[in-house]
Predict the 3D structure of the following.
Amino acid sequence: MTTLTEQAVLAALSTVKDPLMNRDLVTLKAVNKVEIKGGTVGVEIVLGYPALGVRETLGEAVLQALLALEGVDSADVDLGWYVHPAPVSNSQAAIANVKNIVAVSSGKGGVGKSTTTVNLALALVAEGAKVGILDADIYGPSQPQMLGVGAQRPEGHGNNQMKPIEAHGVQSISMGYLVTEKTPMAWRGPMVSGALQQLLNQTLWQDLDYLLIDMPPGTGDIQLTLSQHVPVTGAIIVTTPQDIALLDAQKGIEMFRKVNVPVLGVVENMSTHICSQCGHEESIFGSGGGERIAKDYQSELLGALPLDLSIRHNADSGQPSVVADPQSDITRIYKEIARKVGARLWAEQQQGSAMPEITISDD
């Protein structure tokens, strides 16, 4: 009778690759526990990103690898995830109850950055994460309408603090919750930067894996305030294939690189348009722009979204695509982007990390 060993189990698990990281589970330090009881093997796999969309297929791959081992009669696979908090430099203060801060940015307006932010947040929630949105576009906040919040106001709490407003499972705060729709924010730069820091630090976030910051376009006061005072874990650049949008997107990438914020990837909106009447597909704003800029900056094209009327309509109605049509191709793309963002953040955190202890028991 063959005696099972932990080395044999780990060798089997080393043949299974995470579909997003393209590395095996042992190298990824995702094997948290191994139990051997006679011919029965139990393993606990803990990924570093929300992975509801790949849990079934990856869990099945682990199961088959274990059952192929000589001496294994049965196997039990427990596959889950835990999002680790990003390290914070000494010059920046951590935000209470927030593990990772991701800036969603664009070099220019009108490329769908806010729509990307809200759908990415909802996709992360659908994948199993706890997510918040900070609407940092002080002059033109749009998240209250996209989330369908309406005229709600944040509830005050304690000493100059407020609770975020929750909609569709996403916590959010925005200047749009504090002023009326017709109130113009005629503020100079220092006032805007101060308002951003207040929104960020005086909001009682509740155990967030990710806080997405919906940035205003450009590279001005808000961007500088974030880079100097906020521990941003990574940035996502939103663009269209249009050449002028790509020029501005490059400036955004360069800005984040100068302040040592990793660019997790590029999202290309309005990639193609498919006629609803005849089905003809056309690249109205050009093609391949997002992929080119990602390649030029050694980054990744996280996903490409079509120019689709439903995306705009759903966002305007307070029911973004991910919640309005969970089974659509558009939602599938947003969920793929969400998993890639989580995986990229995990990869960034793994650099220089120590090997965790694996618990082995042989009864």
The chain has two domains: 6-82+352-362, 98-324. The longest strand covers residues 40-47. Residues 6-82+352-362 form a domain with the GMP Synthetase; Chain A, domain 3 fold (CATH 3.30.300.130). The radius of gyration is 22 Å.
